[in-house]
Write a structure and sequence with these properties.
The protein contains 18 helices and eight strands. By secondary structure, it is of the alpha+beta class. The chain has a domain of 247 residues: Nucleotidyltransferase, domain 5 (2-Layer Sandwich). It is elongated and about 105 Å long.
């Protein structure tokens, strides 16, 4: 680096410090930099907050108005993966200087929320300057008791690992948690089928029915804070504080919606078909198979009553080959990350018959698989037989599943051979129509050959 370039950078650095009321190496007032205090004062005035002077560093504190958000903790605890009713819940969301969780990214705003009876109370802690970070982290730790469950949205992948990294950088232990409830997996498993994406703002619009006006976009937030550190006015950070406040409040509202609509068994019956199917998967993962089966039965009952299920399926008006207009669940859409997504064997087998994430057919398939997992083999056979009525690729798959159940679970080799022959006949018919699948046909042929060998009478060896 040339001397002129270095001199220019030093001059810019001194000018920035002077604009913020600081001098190089100047720290006073009990170890707190005067520049950090001045930045905190300006920030507190802009966001209508309180400047807290702490030996570890000044922090700006905002306390939004409390809102009434009742939550039935006993009922909520009945859902899989949800916290026990006696554990305190602390909602958390951060605004950061970047999207990485490495040491170079700093959380300059941490929003926290918790319940006091039926009221939801919030606190927002802002960092006026990088040297004051120990003060911010200390205040955050004071709001998270060791018995609490953290409630976040993608917090397991971003917010909490980032904060843990910052505590380690400060040589301080991160707050211990009793548990961590990340709502993003629940949304993806239960609600994603009827949304364009799984962003929190989309959840607000399409699930909670709330709309933000004049909100700041996430990509703008780091720049606004860094501009403030360079001497720009603090007014643009007002929108950032409002954005964070609504994010934390949306966590509480979403949890309340989950409590009212999904934790109550009676209320579940009015849910969209796809929600019930996704919830069944969540219960099945938690080994609560009877409850999972009840959810699938309710989903099929809704369709049998002729109720509208338009909310289950986003519209697919994209032309063939127009990948950008296909919905996210389309088997031929290219994944948004990681390159081209190869369709699974099941997707290739049904040849695109799954025109939505949760058709009646797919729910019925899920139910048949669940019955087998519950060791209800006779009921599983009946469920698969119902799926053979439509013919086509799904019928071929259903007859193969029936053959498996009869051979391996019911000990009916003859019946298994009959089911395999039906599968072979349908597969041959599809081949003649130009819709054959050599992989499936070969698998069925191998199964038939094995079943013939098992059912053939044994020949006694010569004496």
């Amino acid at each position: 680096m040339s001397g002129a370039t270095l001199e220019r950078r030093l001059a810019n650095y001194r000018a920035t410090l002077a604009a913020n009321g600081r001098e190089p190496g100047d720290r006073g007032d009990g170890g707190i930099g005067r520049g950090s205090i001045e930045l905190g004062r300006r920030l507190a005035e802009a966001v209508d907050g309180e400047l807290l002077l702490d030996p570890a560093g000044p922090v700006v504190r905002c306390e939004p108005a409390t809102v009434v958000l009742p939550l039935d903790r006993e009922r909520l605890a009945g859902l899989p993966g949800l916290p026990p009713p006696d554990a305190p819940l602390v909602c958390l969301d951060t605004e950061t200087t970047g999207l990485a969780t490495a040491s170079g990214t700093v959380a300059f705003l941490v929003g926290l929320g918790w319940w006091e009876d039926d009221r939801f109370r919030q606190v927002q802690l802002l960092l006026p300057d990088h040297p004051a970070e120990p003060g911010l982290l200390g205040r955050v730790a004071a709001h998270i008791p060791s018995t609490a469950w953290l409630v976040t949205y993608n917090g397991r992948g971003f917010d909490w690992p980032l904060l843990v990294a910052r505590y380690r950088m400060m040589r301080s232990p991160a707050p211990s948690l009793a548990g961590h409830l990340d709502l993003l997996p629940f949304v993806r498993r239960v609600l994603r089928h009827r949304m364009t994406d799984a962003r929190l703002r989309t959840v607000e619009t399409e699930i909670l029915g709330t709309f933000r006006h004049g909100d700041v976009d996430g990509w703008q937030i780091p720049g606004r804070f860094l501009d403030f550190l360079r001497g720009a006015p603090a007014a643009p950070l007002v929108d950032v504080v409002r954005h964070n406040r609504e994010d934390v409040r949306s966590l509480a509202r979403l949890l309340g919606r989950i409590d009212a609509d999904y934790a109550d068994p009676a209320a579940r019956e009015s849910l969209p078909r796809g929600d019930l199917a996704g919830l069944a998967r969540a219960f099945a993962r938690d080994r609560r198979l009877e409850t999972a089966l009840a959810c699938l039965d309710a989903a099929l009952a809704r369709s049998s009553r002729g109720e509208s299920t338009s909310a289950d399926v986003p519209s697919d008006d994209g032309a063939a080959g127009d990948d950008t207009r296909r919905p996210w669940w389309h088997p031929h859409r290219v994944a948004d990350v990681g390159g081209t997504r190869r369709p699974s064997m099941w997707t290739r087998f049904v040849e695109g018959r799954l025109d939505s994430p949760w058709t009646n057919e797919r729910v019925a398939i899920e139910r048949a698989r669940l019955l087998r997992r519950m060791d209800r083999y006779d009921d599983a056979v009946v469920a698969w037989q119902d799926l053979t009525a439509g013919g086509g690729a799904v019928a071929v798959h259903a007859w193969v599943e029936i053959a498996k159940l009869r051979e391996h679970r019911l000990g009916d080799v003859s019946g298994a051979g009959d089911a395999a022959k039906r599968a072979a006949g349908l597969a041959e018919r599809r081949r003649r129509l130009g819709m054959g699948d050599p992989v499936v046909e070969q698998a069925i042929a191998m199964r038939l050959a094995r079943l013939r060998r098992r059912s053939a009478p044994s020949v006694a060896p010569p004496v």
